[in-house]
Batch of 4 targets.
Target 1
Amino acid sequence: MSWLVFTYSLPSRENSSTRVSLWRRLKRIGAASPKGGVFILPDRDDCLESFQWMAQEIQQSKGEALVMKVEHFEGLSEKHVIEFFHSARKKDYDELLPEVKTLHKAVGKAKVQDQGGHDRLKKLRTRFTEITEVDFFRSPHAAKIKELLDEIEAALHPGAEEAASIRALNISDYKGRVWVTRPRPYVDRLACAWLIRRFVDAEAQIHYSDTPKKDELSFDMKEAVFGHRGNFCSFEVMMRSFGITDDAVKSLAEIIHEIDLRDGRYHRSEIEGIELVLKGWRQSDLADAELEARGILFFDGLHVALAAGEKA
């Protein structure tokens, strides 16, 4: 694989706060440093953009910066280069692990069941997500923290056992059917419509009405065939019912769950921006069919981006 290399120098008169700020930003974007003054990232569009913005700012400060693309490093195998990233992420995970263990222990002893526990979990989840977003090569040190966080989450959010009660369905039995949900579709209904069209029946008929007709498959409405179950939103119920195990869909389910239920169970960086877009649509004078069409394209893009993140 190829790599992006970044190196820079600042005027000697530049104060130390600028240097510290640059160092923190390099750490935040996940850059590894095989030797002093040289920083590397995998050759990805988002990584290149990060280096380019930093280079521009340094040049505006009368400093010098260089961004290069290289195919290999003399004397270093690809495995060795990846190890630089693993080492950097290990430090990040090691800083987080003691706090996670402390909360895990407190929850296990039933000492933390109030809002304080949820707030602490949210902060730890946020920090964990920030690290995983720049964990380009899936450090093995992430697994233990994720396991502990999931156990804390299960303890603070009882009701996960509902998943076991969701009956598995055969997708072929649901092709050629007519689906119905409430008008003015928002996050859960839009996501369900996307899931139906992309994983169940691409030619499905979807209607919007407060009153289902006989033989219509209702979703995300009162007494729906596919509705909320315990602490699962309709999208999660449908995903589990049809046995959809796609990792990107699972990530999307976490986003939908949090926007729809707001129970603090999931903490993903994408939530705020996605919710803002959906709110804008809801406040616009758009027909139900137009909302659905936009939602299909929107969730198509999210699915592709999330899938790329899972593979990175």
Note: The chain has a mean pLDDT of 90.
Target 2
Amino acid sequence: MTIHSDMKFFTGSATRYLSENIAKEYGVPLGKTSVIKFSDGEFQTSYDETVRGSTVFIIQSTFQPLENLFELLLLIDAAKRASAYKIVAVIPYFGFARQDRKDKSRVAIGSKLVANLLVAAGVNRVMTMDLHADQIQGFFDVPVDHLYASSLFVPYIKNLQLENLVVAAPDVGGTKRSQAYSKFFNSEMVICYKHREKPNEVGKMVVIGDVKDKNVILVDDIIDTAGTITAAAELMLEKGAKSVRAMATHPVLSGPAYERIEKSAITEVIVTDTIPSKKECKKITTLSVAPLLAEVMSKVYNYKSISSNFIM
């Protein structure tokens, strides 16, 4: 890849593990920043090298805690005030994406608020992966490069050489995503219909479609508490499935997620490193998004098309 002196990579604290791998793809070190923390919890970010006239790529996923998002906002603001030419926020996991609409009265649309904050801070472009809802791109008044982990997942699934493959949507909202994989693999698709009593808790679930003697791939964008995928896997095995694997871009994995996966009937959970792993789990396989992000960042800088990075 071409290295440009006025193209600089910086990282937030939470995503350093991934940013270092992206920088390694270029054979250059990450730019230098520092974070000063005060005794009351307040913190201040600063660049320890000039960014004047540079195109600055700031890499930070905005998973919890909320300080990760605020650190990204401070880094954007600092770059703007230091006369950076362009500021690109690379957000592998876009937090608050599940709050993309008003699903009941008197609630906030969190993802729209985050988009407003990023633009107000001074970002010129946003790069992210597998948004919970495609419409979030329209919340921004700057260009958004929306990438998909399918370019990583598809080759991996192909190498498994599974017979009688069936793609499953873990809920009705995920049918579009699952349908794309089903069409690509020329396989059947089934849908899990679930009813939530409250957030992160699955009440009732049924399978729409035939999974008997099939190898099932559950496709989702996020695995949070793993309640849905483990319940779906158990139900599908009861319906005669040969094996069940789960595939999700963002391993939020909060609360009892690791324990649920470990104890479940799922053969394998395939995720990416948009969010760092908190624990070891022999059932979880992690694919790195660093090469994909590095390639797209280079293309964006050089005003080249990124359509070749989409395989579905």
Note: The mean pLDDT is 93.
Target 3
Amino acid sequence: MTTKPLHGRARRHTADRHTNGWSVQSEEWLVVEQALELQVDGTVIATTMCTPDDPKSLAIGFCVAEGLLAPEVVADVEIVATEPVLRVSVSTGHLPGSVTARLGTVSASCGACGTADMAALINGVTNVPCTPPPVGELVAALATQLRAQQEVFALTGGSHAAAAITLDGRVVEVAEDVGRHNAVDKVVGRLHARQLLPASEYVLVLSGRASFEMVQKACAAGFGTLVAVSAPSSLAVDAAQRAGLRLIGFARDDRYTTYVEPNHHRST
């Protein structure tokens, strides 16, 4: 049972459960998915599929991760709640010419898919300062700590999560979404609203794998450490090495694997 209002994160649906030849009608929870169109200074930047519970944080976090908004800059956000597309407009005062716009619809599973110039993204990953590593016992327990915060996943089994956690294990922000990259954007957006960026004092924890776009977003927000419950991709490891980001995968069941340690791997 959820302890907080769902605020559009999940809804009920009548379905038939089938087991060993028997069927029974049941009320199931579904994670909510909706299209969101993001405009920055009047230009449509992306259309993404998301869970629309916190579109403002999602939009701000996206802008920070894409280099459209500096962490210290406050932006105006206008939300137009229309069906079937939720429209969010962000006013930053200017649109940097170096930003690569999205093409078409970004799916809920990939934050970099559809980018016109992948090379520009790879070369644009932001370097981060070296930060102290989290204590090993904490890293091994992060997956359990994150799972305890995943209310929508507990109901639906269909959402991803991300969290900003201090080096001593305190959860600062946590977000869930049907899209992995959206959950990260929401966390970054909430940290931005609290003036807690750059996030060098925190660990970014993911409920799934660590792909390139997750490393990109972590670096743009200033995290020094990225911890994923599942595996990293080869491009994620390469990007983390270039940026000096500590990258840890398979953080579950009292174990974890460090793929990049900045003190050993950071490029010059």
Note: The chain has two domains: 34-122, 136-265.
Target 4
Amino acid sequence: MSQGMFFSGEATEGQIYEEITSRISYILPKEDNLLSNLANFTALLKEAFGKISWAGFYLYDGKRLYLGPFQGKIACTNIEIGKGVCGTAAELGKTVIVGDVEKFPGHIACDPNSRSEIVVPLYNSDKSLYGVLDLDSNLLNAFSEIDQNALEKLVNYFEQNLIPGN
């Protein structure tokens, strides 16, 4: 695990998430452009956690998910709702954690080194889909309930404070 920008010594993932959550309004101010905040958030997550090989957003246009700001290797540019882990999370309307992507039916392999994934949906104020936050790891079983709970809180910050109309 990377010490990232938050800790000089060894820190647990929970501690890193707590630090990010406590600073989120300073790191991603409401006054900044949403696209800039999405980009900085992906950089923040990738820097803070060595287990993350790819961090990004797919934004919903009413029909498909399209690649938004990200950190990592070149990615798939669009995903159908219900396809792959991102499309499944969007369709189900809930976070999806996949410990081994090779065992996930219909997994879309943008990066052949990716082994596990977590995807968290984001919503507009009217509860319609805005997009998804997608994190990949080159490690099996890299994501847990700790990640899910923390990422859902951080996504809630986006929903409440940064997504226009919310």
Note: The helical segments are 13-27, 34-48, 84-92, 145-162.
